[in-house]
Amino acid sequence: MSEESQPENPHCSPVEHFDADEPGFNSAQTRSPSFIPAYKDTTFLLRDELRPVRLQLELLKPELLQQEYGINSTVVVFGSTRIQSPEAAKEELRLAEEALNTDPTAEELLNKVAKARRNVDKSHYYEMAREFGQLVSREAQNGGTAAAVIITGGGKGIMEAANRGAHDVGGKSIGLNIVLPKEQHPNEYITPELCFQFQYFALRKMHFLLRAIALVVFPGGYGTLDELFETLTLIQTKKSEALPVLLFGREYWQRIINFEALVEEGAINQADYELFRYVDSPSEAWDIVREFYSTQQN
Question: Which residues are CB-neighbours of 215 under 8 A, at least 6 positions away?
Answer without folding.
Answer: 76, 78, 228, 231, 243, 244, 245, 246
